[in-house]
């Protein structure tokens, strides 16, 4: 038997577990997660109104219910929890699939003013992440600025524009639904520092912004035209060309008479968040122009955009895990085809997959080949560690260490509690938003 621990139960962790059990009949996998709930960013990152992507949970469920896979939730790895060195004693091999747990910073004055949040903090709140804080994101907000033009920026822009009727069928927590439903936001500015052809969103997600009820879209053709590829997109790769075509289709139309407006802005780089009455009041941008090498340069002209809410959506970043090497520049763990590199040399028995391996890029499906590459390395290395005697069942050892994981039945009990909560509110499933209620539900015995 080859015992492998996979740390993290998001898509990369689940695809890793799946590859392991598919490729080698000897393997038994424990999938550990800090949270009592599985699925990582599929549960706590994919927007609640993206039901189709969310339904991927059914596939991931199949992996975690495999007879040689065990879900061990509520287990912190690292400081305050199970040390990395202890995992190495309990398992033949460990695969870290811990994602990119923090946000990139802008590094500009005013970034930490009340009312300025990372997009992740906002996403965590409406996704019921138990660590999320509810700071009245939308109180008194008429104008919101979203900084960045990636898919996360599109997600939060869309959520700000949606009304209660559209959000009510989702599994969003009730407090967030109530707040978004009562929102008085009239304008959402989504702002890129470069041009339309360099935006990171995908066309499907961009197009969706044009389908939101009672919401208009404004693109200034003169601003977009600073990008030569906007005027002539023929030479662009297909994904960027399609983005530009969608934007050109919207550009120049008169501002529609709608309850909300989304203004897509380009060539503006944020230089400062300015305060009004003790919280953010505006974002000061410097206008940029293309530098001819794919980047931009400042022009020395500035523009202020009013905002009572600023969501900084400029990408994620991996964080170091005590006991593992870390490349601070890339925010990843150094590796060779998924094998962790310690001091430049391969450390057999330690592996990475997903965003902590390759950085926070790609769609969910990108994790599948990424996990397979790592598992192939692991199984090739297996003769180096498979004969090592282990102290017994790792679950018993964890319990002896004082760790009491939430198992699959605990997670199923959470699912039942969420279904009951939804029924009591006249909705479908509604997520439990805090540690207390999640753990209380997990400790019951199910339906
Ligand atoms: P992202 O795709 O890397 O986009 C980050 C955006 O922030 C870019 O527009 C970037 O502009 C901008 N930015 C970075 N630093 C900045 C700065 N200092 N000032 C102003 N702008 C700055 O990151 P993301 O949106 O967080 O998405 C992460 C990954 O998750 C992506 O692969 C994404 O596709 C995926 N995702 C997918 C979905 C979906 O499929 N529905 C949903 C959510 C996320 P530059 O290009 O100029 O650097």
From TrEMBL:
Keyword Oxidoreductase assigned: yes
UniProtKB keywords: FAD, Flavoprotein, NADP, Oxidoreductase
UniProt binding sites for NADP(+): 193-194, 205, 362
InterPro entries, A to Z: FAD/NAD-bd_sf, FAD/NAD-binding_dom, Ferredox_Rdtase, Ferredox_Rdtase_adrenod
Cofactors named for this entry: FAD
Catalytic reaction annotation: 2 reduced [2Fe-2S]-[ferredoxin] + NADP(+) + H(+) = 2 oxidized [2Fe-2S]-[ferredoxin] + NADPH
Residues engaged in binding FAD: 12, 41, 77, 355, 362-364
Family statement: Belongs to the ferredoxin--NADP reductase type 1 family.
Name assigned to this protein: ferredoxin--NADP(+) reductase
């Amino acid at each position: 038997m080859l015992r492998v621990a996979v740390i993290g139960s998001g898509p990369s962790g689940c695809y890793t577990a799946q590859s392991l059990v598919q490729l080698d009949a000897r393997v038994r996998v424990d999938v550990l997660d800090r949270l009592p709930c599985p699925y990582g960013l599929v549960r706590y990152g994919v927007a609640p109104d993206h039901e189709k992507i969310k339904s991927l949970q059914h596939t991931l469920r199949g992996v975690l219910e495999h007879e040689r896979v065990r879900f061990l939730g509520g287990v912190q790895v690292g400081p305050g929890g199970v040390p990395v060195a202890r995992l190495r004693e309990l398992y033949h091999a460990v695969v870290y699939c811990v994602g990119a747990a923090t946000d990139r910073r802008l590094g500009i004055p005013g970034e930490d003013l009340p009312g300025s949040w990372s997009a992740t903090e906002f996403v965590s709140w409406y996704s019921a992440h138990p660590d999320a804080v509810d700071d009245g994101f939308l109180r008194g907000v008429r104008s919101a600025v979203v900084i960045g033009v990636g898919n996360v920026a599109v997600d939060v822009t869309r959520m700000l524009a949606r009304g209660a009727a559209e959000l009510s069928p989702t599994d969003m927590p009730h407090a967030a639904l109530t707040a978004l439903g009562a929102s008085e936001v009239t304008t959402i500015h989504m702002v890129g520092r470069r041009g339309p052809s360099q935006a990171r969103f995908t066309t499907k997600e961009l197009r969706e912004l044009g389908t939101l009820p009672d919401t208009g879209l404004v693109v200034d053709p003169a601003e977009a035209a600073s990008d030569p590829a906007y005027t002539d997109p023929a030479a662009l790769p297909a994904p960027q060309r399609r983005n530009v075509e969608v934007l050109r289709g919207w550009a120049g139309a008169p501002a529609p008479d709608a309850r909300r407006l989304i203004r897509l802005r380009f060539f503006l780089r944020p230089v400062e968040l300015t305060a009004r009455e003790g919280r953010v009041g505006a974002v000061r941008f410097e206008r940029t122009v293309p530098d001819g090498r794919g980047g931009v340069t400042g022009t020395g002209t500035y523009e202020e955009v009013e905002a009572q809410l600023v969501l900084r959506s400029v990408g994620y970043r991996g964080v170091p895990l005590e006991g593992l090497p870390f490349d601070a520049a890339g925010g990843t763990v150094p590796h060779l085809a998924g094998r962790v590199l310690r001091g430049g040399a391969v450390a057999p028995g330690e592996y990475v997959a997903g965003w902590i391996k390759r950085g926070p890029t790609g769609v969910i499906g990108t994790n599948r080949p990424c996990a397979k590459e790592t598992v192939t390395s692991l199984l090739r290395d297996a003769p180096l560690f498979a004969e090592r005697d282990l102290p017994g069942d790792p679950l018993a050892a964890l319990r002896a260490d004082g760790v009491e994981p939430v198992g699959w039945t605990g997670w199923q009990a959470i699912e039942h509690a969420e279904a009951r909560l939804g029924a009591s509110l006249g909705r479908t499933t509604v997520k439990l938003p805090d540690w207390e209620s999640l753990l209380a539900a997990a400790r019951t015995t199910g339906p």
